[in-house]
Design goal:
Length: about 350
Amino acid sequence: MTTDCCVSENLQRSKAHSDLMLDWLRGRGRTLIIIHDNPDPDCLASAMALRHLFVMKLNRDAVIAFSGMIGRSENIAMAKELEITLIPLAMLDLREFSVVCMLDTQPGTGNNSLPAECRVDIVIDHHPVRDISKSCRWVDIRDEYGVTATILYEYLVAQHITIGTKLATALFYAIKSETQDLGREANRPDRDAYLRLFPLANKRLLYEITHPKLPVEHFRTIYRGLENAKIYGMLLVVNLMAISFPDVVAEMADYLVRLENVETVLSMGHFNDGVIISIRTTSHIHNAGEIIRRLVAERGTAGGHGMMAGGKLGNVPFDPATLKEVEVLLTQRLLHELSIADAIPSRLLESRQHV
């Protein structure tokens, strides 16, 4: 099958789904778009695109809401430079909305703060489908896609909607960051969208987003993480202890998985009342999403897919001894999952001092 045939089939699928969804939405009341706590570029761009779709096809605006915080400097810069209006979920009366959408997250995943009793009408995501999502009215979950923003891009193309510079920049950066410039879990739809969006993106805005000024706490966290990092064969475990924003856990995992001779990274840090966890792997044998769900088991929530996953252990007080116990538990479970036996841990900095 040729590339053009695949692109055509994907757009036909997006056209059919978006047509039915838009028909159902006509005549309904206010619309709410829920993205996950601590938003990343994928859900930010996806929300921009869905809101634009509603404005252009239904002449209706939508409210984009989230909980938590935007902590990573690149994501703060993205929201600022692209003028993405976000409202804290706690400030909204959910009874005022007739339609609730979820993007890049699903009901019951633990990474969004929508109350469990609230109805969700539309779910668009690229993570593996959850059973509870199947009961929603309109569901478009494509776990073969690397990025949720790619699905929304296809909706806009299929509906013949013009994509302006800022929206193109948002969609392009979402694909760029989520797939590490098409090197991680990018499939044909993502590559096609990336290449078509690049000429439309504002390169100055891209530079401002990808090269933001960083707070001093960012460097302190990196220092603390490097000091605490331990290597077990091809696994690296980093405990950041207390962190100022949850995004830094995934950021450290992305950074440290580049270390030579390391295949998998488990990163963790304490934020508010729990432990944020992130896994990154370069292995195509293991599925990070499945592994992390078994790691947290009965103690928390988690999700993800092949090479990247995240989760949270709730109700963990901040106490250095307790956090060390959590680290030991998660490390032992992950060593078992990866079939790493009798690995003698070494500290990252010590193990590299002779180089």
